[in-house]
Amino acid sequence: MDALQGLLYAFSVALQPDNLVLVFVGCVLGTLVGVLPGIGPVGAISILLPLTFQLPPAGSIIMLAGIYYGVMYGGSTTSILVNVPGETASVVTCMDGYAMARQGRAGSALGIAAFGSFIAGTIGLIGLQFIAEPLSVIALKFGPPEYFAIILLGFIFISYLSLGSMLKAGMMAFLGLTLSSVGLDPINAQQRMTFGVLSLYEGIGIAPMAMGLFGVAEVFNSMEKAASVKVLKVKIKNLFPTKLDWLQAKWAIARGTLIGFLLGILPGGGPVLSTFFAYGVEKRVAKNPERFGKGAIEGVAAPEAANNAATSTSFIPLLTLGIPPNVVLAVLYGAFLIHGVAPGPLLIKEHPDVFWGLLGSMYIGNVVLLILNLPLIPLWVQVLRIPDKILYPLILLFCVIGAYSINNNVFDIIVMVIFGIAGYLFKKFGYEAAPLILGFVLGPMFEVNLRRSLLISQGSFSIFFTRPIALGAIIVCAILVLLPLYKAFSKKKGHAVIN
Amino acid sequence: MAEKTDDRAGKLKNKREIIGIIGWLLIAAFVMISSWNLGLGEYKNLGPGFFPFWSALLLGALALSMMGTIYLQKEAVAIGREADIWKDLTWHKNVIVVTALIVYCVVLTWLGYILSTMGLMIILFYVGRMKPWAVIAASLLAVLLSYCLFLYGLKTPLPRGIWFF
């Protein structure tokens, strides 16, 4: 199927009335959740996942992708109006977005964020459309050693690019790998660490775990704080950017799009990293960098464009290789499996309706979000005014029913509560939960490909060094592991010389 | 004086990190022992215990590296803005909520969705310091709306309990 045929098929699936409704519902729910500070895209997807169980696979994935997109859009609204990011990828938008709002330019900030996101998201989707199919063909030639090496590279990137301590990120990734072993052995079906609990035979569920770590933990963190968010009292006018706004922001949008497009594909990269990178680049190339942090429109346009471009292109490794590059898509990967669809090189061939339907719905979702975001901003602001004492119990209720509805089993609620407590403590002690989820989702693939590789090679590890792609990935891993050690050693030597 | 406060804060942070590291080492040791008993197998045919054993071993190794980092560095490891992570926070609310959730899990299938969820919501809204009439009204509304949404809207079977509702 060529690109044009694929696009026509994409719209033929996405424009079916059922799927159109699901795109709309996904976008609305995603924006609604994205506006709420604390519950990010992972929490949103895991909490809303049970809503999709009765839907066909294509429809449920379309809705979940709409939620993901919507959260990204919604997060920017909170960043600009409240100076509290709706989700991590909107942190950078706070810096200049809130400053613009305080100067009475909230409308311009919101408008350029929405339009920039739309342009970047659309370009990202065009990239996804043209790159995915050829990459799937290449990926068919990958064997277990290649998959093992690429997933290993993904783990190293996750630790390397983590916002906090690399050591702690690594520990969380290994914890995720360990937890992924619970259940039946994937090769010989022997019980591992099930302690005789029948509900653990299939392993720990990704949905209750994610709900606990990101949803329930956030509720715990918020409930113990006294203050609610304070919404900036400004009249929001002129949501359509002016000619001057466009003149100032156009190159920022272009650069942000390119950065997000490239970084979105990298494991561990994704929207979060691309926003920080894009902001840094804008500040560096600006003629007056001192404007940044004080209401520079480029400081809003670039990260928002990078965010949405990365959101689109991060689907590429998930859909073509079956490897989720970031934690949000790791949860989405779990959702795919729950619905009986295995992402990977054969997805386009075996489930063309899922792949092309998803692509088409993302094009439509981009338009829907642009239409939704701007006129409904006053509504989203009202949502922010809902008192925490009403909001958080409702979120907890939703999590509880959602966890129960996965398997009609109280055990899933218990798992969710345990991981809720764990997530709360992780935050207190400075550990990020994202590497844990990635380790957990990638763990079974990692183990199976390692064991298959060694079965093929009769126990020889040379199989990873004799195949070019595997060797290339392992060399990059080695560089990334040795580089911080080399830097630390050089720093110590430098101190010794000065002394 | 400021130096004494910083030093005390640093020691508190280090103490917290060490408690965390001990926890990780205990988890790693437990998993390694369980995995060893499962059998590591041979390289040409890895056993079920191989993967969790090595994951736990590497987890333990990183925890020990962190311990080494704390002891070798002269200044305290900066791991957050506050030394006292529970300062000025009403963490006891979370204890009440967790207890309520555990009791909820125990009684859900026995009491049924409506009664047990009503109890849970009353506790959750009460913890938020809403007025009594508002607690009852909000709980009732939340239970009924969620019941209709999940049972009739999403066709999710909810536990009926001994009174069949």
Question: Could you give a short description of this structure?
Answer:
The complex is a heterodimer of chains A (499) and B (165). With 499 residues, chain A is mainly α.
Tell me about this structure:
The complex is a heterodimer of chains A (about 500) and B (about 160). Chain A has about 500 residues and is mainly alpha-helical. Chain A has helices at about 5-15, 15-35, 40-50, 55-80, 90-100, 105-140, 145-160, 165-180, 205-225, 245-265, 270-285, 300-315, 315-320, 325-340, 345-350, 350-375, 375-385, 390-405, 410-430, 435-455, 465, 470-499, and strands at about 185, 190. Chain A has one domain (about 5-499). In chain A, strands 1-2 form a two-stranded antiparallel sheet. In chain A, strand 1 and strand 2 form a beta hairpin. In chain A, helix 3 runs parallel beside helix 14 and helix 7 packs antiparallel against helix 20 (about 435-455). The model of chain A has no long low-confidence stretch (mean pLDDT about 85). Chain B is mainly alpha-helical. Residues about 75-80 of chain B have low confidence and may be disordered. The chains are: A mainly alpha (about 500), B mainly alpha (about 160). Chains A and B meet through helix 8, helix 9, helix 18, helix 19 and helix 20 of A and helix 1, strand 2, helix 2, helix 3 and helix 4 of B.
What is the element layout, followed by pairings?
The complex is a heterodimer of chains A (499) and B (165).
Chain A: H1 3-14, H2 17-35, H3 41-48, H4 57-82, H5 91-102, H6 106-139, H7 144-160, H8 166-180, E1 183-184, E2 191-192, H9 206-223, H10 243-263, H11 270-285, H12 298-313, H13 315-321, H14 327-338, H15 347-350, H16 352-373, H17 377-384, H18 388-407, H19 410-429, H20 434-456, H21 463-466, H22 468-498
Antiparallel strand pairs in A: 1-2
Helix pairs in contact in A: 1-16, 2-4, 2-16, 3-4, 3-9, 3-14, 4-5, 4-6, 4-12, 4-14, 4-16, 4-17, 5-6, 5-12, 6-10, 6-12, 6-13, 6-16, 7-8, 7-20, 7-22, 8-20, 9-18, 9-19, 10-11, 10-12, 11-12, 14-20, 18-19
Chain B: H1 2-38, E1 41-42, E2 45-46, H2 50-72, H3 92-111, H4 113-127, H5 132-153
Antiparallel strand pairs in B: 1-2
Helix pairs in contact in B: 1-2, 3-4, 4-5
